[in-house]
Amino acid sequence: MENDTYKTLAAPGEETLFKEKNSKFFGYAFPIANEDEVKTILADIKKQHYGARHWCYAFQLGTEPNIYYRANDDGEPNNTAGMPIYGQIQSFGVTNVLVVSVRYFGGVKLGVGGLISAYRTSAQMALEASEIIDKTIDVHFTVKFGYPDMNKVMRIIKEKNLDIVSQTMENDCTMTLATRKKNAPMFLEAFEAAYGIVVSPPTPKGGV
């Protein structure tokens, strides 16, 4: 059966600090829902660490097969910062996550190997300082029906333990409902068996 859970962070992790040859690497890990949040978080970190030399990061959004990620070296030599950070996101098996490592240069160059190791360690420490949780991949679907069917619809919602995301009551009624992915076929059948109720195809929720 197709997996319908994924690992992510419960909340932003604690700040971590890794030191290597006088350079300091402050590590952070955040749960995110979209790329706009990345820009906001980075702007806040740059204000907090305005004296730093590099603000390197990587993030991943979505689940297989729709994974989107970016890695940024922020002025460090190519692939010495962003990709080692992203490698730790992969290693921990998490998604919808941003990891940032802020470097204060200590006057001693670390070399390519030293940088890769330092950023990898910083990212690992940041993720280890975070609570990792399992979340379900939910799908949304829309149900349209007339007022006479209201009781029938509400009974299915209650029986199948569905979440009502939004509802519009005009000439006809429209509800957006959510359930975990693996349960979608079962409750779609329940609605389609009820006469006069039109169900739209499920769509993934929250970009996952």
TrEMBL record:
Q: Spell out the GO cellular component terms annotated for this protein, sorted alphabetically and separated by semicolons.
A: cytoplasm
Q: Which GO BP annotation is one of this protein's?
A: regulation of translational initiation
Any idea where the Impact N-terminal domain is?
Answer: 21-127
Question: Which Gene3D superfamilies does the entry mention?
Answer: Impact, N-terminal domain
PANTHER family for this protein: IMPACT FAMILY MEMBER YIGZ, IMPACT-RELATED
Family named by the database record: Belongs to the IMPACT family.
Supply the name of the protein. Answer: Impact N-terminal domain-containing protein
The species is: Flavobacterium akiainvivens
